Fold this sequence. Notes:
Elements: H1 10-15, H2 18-23, H3 27-30, H4 36-43, E1 49-50, E2 55-58, E3 61-64, H5 65-71, E4 76-80, E5 89-90, H6 91-100, E6 109-113, E7 120-126, E8 129-146, E9 157-169, E10 182-185
Antiparallel strand pairs: 1-6, 2-3, 4-5, 4-6, 7-8, 8-9, 9-10
Amino acid sequence: ASTAISVPSIPAQLANMKMVQGRLTSPEVLRRYLLDSEAEAVAATFVVMASPSEEVTWNGRCAPARDLALAFPEDWILKPQREGGGNNLYGQDMVRRLQAMHPAEEPAFILMEYIRPAAFHSVRLVENEPVEGLCLTEFGTFGAFLMEPGGLEKPLVDEDLGYLLRTKDHQSREGLVIGGYAALDVLALEEPTRLSGPEGGNPSADPVTRA
C-alpha cells in the first residue's frame, strides 16, 4: 500500500473550480461557515458569478446571466473551467461564443461580472527596461491545509503562509506571471498619518474626522 498523500484532494480540487467559487459567493452558503452579519459583509465584496442559464440579480435587473452578458458585453467575462491564462472571453468574442453555445456546454463555463479596480502609476521592469505607466495589482493569499480522511473538523495543519501580488499593465486582461502578462510584486506598508491632539493631547488615529 502507498503512503503517498493525495495533493490536492478531490474536495480541494473541486473548491478551486469556478462553479464552486460561484456558489461560495452566496450568503446562504456563507452562513454555513460564518455568522449572519459576517456572511452579509463578506458577500457584499463579491461580484456576480453564475452559469449562463442561472438567473441572477445585477444592477437592479433580474435575468439569466447569459441575457445580461449579451445585453451588456463590456460588463461580463465568460470563463471556462480551466486555469493557466489566455482562456477567458471578453466583449464580442464572448457574445459570439454565447450565441453559439449548446445548452450541454454550459456546465463547462461560468459568467462573471467584470471587475474594474482603480489603476495607479508605477514603474515595471520589462525585459530589463523600466516601463512607466498605469498598472493594476491582484492580491491573493495562500496557505497549507492537511487532514486525515474525514478529519475536516480537526485538521493536522491549517496555516496562512503568505500572499501573492501580481502587477500588470492596466490594459492587460491577463494576469499570468509565467506567461509574461504580469510580474510578482511586494507590498510597501506605511504607518497611517497621525495628527497631534489639541493642546498636546494624545494623537488622533482618525485625522479625517477630527475638527
